Amino acid sequence: MNTPPRAADLNLCLCHSCGQACDISDDPPQCSRCGTALHALKPDSLTRTWAFLLAALIFYVPANLLPVMNTSMLGSGEDSTIITGVLEFWEAGAWDIALIIFIASIGVPAIKFGALTLLLITSQRGSRWACRQRTGLFRFVELVGYWSMLDVLVIALVAALVKFEALGTIEPRVGILFFGTVVVFTMLSAMSFDPRLIWQTSEDREAPDAP
Questions:
Q1: Each residue of 124-168: pLDDT tens digit?
Q2: Considering only CA atoms, which of 73, 196, 87, 190 is closest in space to residue 142?
Q3: DSSP secondary structure string, 135-181?
Q4: What is the C-alpha separation between 149 and 103, in angstroms, rounded?
Q5: Residue 119 and residue 114: Cα distance in Å, rounded?
Q6: 141, 152, 142: which is closest to 182 by C-alpha?
Q7: pLDDT, tens only, 18-38
Q8: DSSP secondary-structure letter at 197?
Q9: The whole model's pTM is what?
């Protein structure tokens, strides 16, 4: 059976802004609907994805070591990191808040770091291994990326709600800024990665007419 032609064989490309299928044979290629510049692949996708991912890893260290909030009860205050904050909420009976913070602060970043590293390494090598599954993994990383700010929002809400003046207060600390930076860089890393590279083998890249 004859295999159907690919979009690259027909010089077609989806617009990154409006999603219209456009002809990229024009010079310079641009969308006929919105005028956006078109690219068969995102320019320097792997380089930019690695850069954002490494930046996120660098900021992830102080995000976990520095205090993210200060809990003050009856005049005595104590700074808490992400881990100690989770333990404090758990011991206080707020297991739901502790679970949300743990998943958003520890689980989600770890999953995103591991998944993006796997996608980058296999794409750089032009691997044919589990292309469909790796594409699904990338979609999953995109999905959980929108929930990465849960930790920041929970601490902000708790700090706003737990205000008993002299009895007790909760205030954010500098660590939450580093964690927010980690979330932004991981989201930028996922946005910079081009999932079409998953399906592009090393032979395709060496071909003279490769995009």
A1: 888 888 888 998 999 888 887 766 666 666 666 666 655 555 455
A2: 190
A3: HHHHHHHHHHHTTTTHHHHHHHHHHHH-B-TTSEEEEE-HHHHHHHH
A4: 11
A5: 9
A6: 152
A7: 878 888 777 778 888 888 887
A8: G
A9: 0.77
